Write the structure tokens for this entry.
Amino acid sequence: MADRLSNGDVNKIELQVKNNMSFTVDVVVIDELPLQFQKRDFELKYRLKANEQKNIIYNMRPTARGNYTFGRIIIYVKSLLGLLQYRTNIAANATVPVYPSFMQMRKYELLSQTTIQTEYGNKRMRKLGHSMEFEQIKEYVRGDDRRTINWKATARKGTLMVNNYTDEKSQQVYCVIDKGRLMKMPFKQLTLLDYAINSTLVLSNVCLQKQDRVGVMTFANRMGSLIAADKKPIQRENILQLLYNQETAFLESDYEMLYMQIRSKIKHRSLIVLYTNFESLSGLKRQINYLRSIAKYHLLMVVFFENTELHQLSHLQVNNLEDVYVKTIAEKFEFEKRLIVKELSKHGILSVLTAPEHLTINAVNKYLELKARQAI
């Protein structure tokens, strides 16, 4: 198997079995799977001819990060008539780490090379002012912006000199991950935190391919980990290692602390992609002032989750009075999610409301859209 497995993805495990005997046998292979899978009836049955070698391949989908320990391989060999059976144990113990979904990262690499996702319905914005990325000092010619005159160079040269700027190609992007109690909610065996971590890894890779500087910050009731924005090739591996060890806290997230940390740690205007979750409008209103404060200094994009189970309940076929109550309450919570989007938009904050399984593609599309509009 690979040196490390990908969380939330199907990983291939391969066993090589050879029959060294001179007659055909039936073989039962039992691989002792890691405890995390909680599978005690796993076995593979094959028939091997004399001196035949077979590569046995099976797939496993881990749903939690951490170390997975595979135990022994137990093989039962039985003659075709079933009169004789032989058992052997193979000490093939191995421990392999499960990392955030690097398979998704490779899958979406091509997405950053295409504009298909962003060419419909988007308008390129005109930038106000000029970039702060300095290129050169040149002599003033009619039509140059007088505000860019370099007076020190003018005094030395004896003629008007101006600073020349170029469009800044490298912007800062920070992925901020909420590790509070609401991110512990499970969907399809993965927690919302794992979805956010997998999406962060993919988005970081796309940003690096776009030559942007990317960093990661985590928080809960206290400040978590921080990687400063950079675009060096090693940044991808640094982010992967940081995300590997993140765990959900079971306390309320402190957005006031988050605002203070962003103000002190992130000095330049950046795109802040905040992965969090709000289940009610009242929950958002408790934090909206801090989000508005962050949005004054940065381009803030809040990414939060649809409750897909509530969506199913809101389309429930009504058969009795209890079903009416359940459907009404589910529709109420669904409507509140849309109100949250409207409330964020009212304060000039971008938002992405998405189902957990579509988080990665929606976050990457939104980033590419902002990049195409030169909104960052």
In short: The radius of gyration is 28 Å. The first helix runs from residue 102 to 107. Residues 24 and 49 are 4 Å apart (CA to CA). Residues 115-130 have pLDDT under 50 and may be disordered.
